[in-house]
Amino acid sequence: MHCLSIPSRKDWSEVESCPSYHTLLPVITEIVESIAQCGSRQGPRMHPLGWVFDCPPTGPGVSLKDFFIRLCKYGLCCGNTFVIVVVLLDRIATKAQFQITEFNIHKLLLGVFVVSIKLTEDRCYSNSYYAGIGGMSTASLNTLEKHTLTLLNWDLHVSETEFNAYLRNFEAYVQSSVPARCVDIQDSA
């Protein structure tokens, strides 16, 4: 079974009242899932760090939507952290030329999520806490975080202009009522 074909068991209503919830989180999830599906269809494009993020052939055992809901529920961050996550995922895909696929999106998402929390939040929890959310060992998460920062070339600054541009693109995507397809995150409208 492919990683993205796992049916969702959760509903957004479970996290709508969480401080971590962003009203665009369902759209963000849909766009990220579409990008991973398209990357998988394009065939292999190996990156030297690709192996670090690949899930086992059996998959992560959780849908991407459920994984986003889990991050929202237990991540203890502000909702805007998820917008930063997408900005950083986009940088990895474009600047590092890293192919986001259904086989690496869960671990890549967790690595970017942890980096984003540390970037945006005044109070962060230990990597062992975030590793528990992601269902992995602390050592594995430490490796993911290190390689995420390498893929980003430590380029973590997100300007207010860039942040707002992503928000506008997400909102335009919602209003376009276009079904999920291969999209460019920066120009999802």
Fold and architecture overview:
With 189 residues, the chain is mostly helical. The protein contains 8 helices and no strands.
Features:
about 190 residues, mainly alpha, about 55% helix
Offer a concise description of the structure.
The protein has 189 residues and is mostly helical.
Strand content: under 5%
Q: Outline the low-pLDDT stretches.
A: none
Indicate the structural class. mainly alpha
Q: Which sheet architecture does the biggest sheet show?
A: none
Number of strands: 0
Write the layout of secondary structure elements.
Layout: H1 25-41, H2 50-53, H3 64-74, H4 80-94, H5 105-120, H6 127-134, H7 138-151, H8 160-176
Helix pairs in contact: 4-5, 4-8, 5-7, 6-7
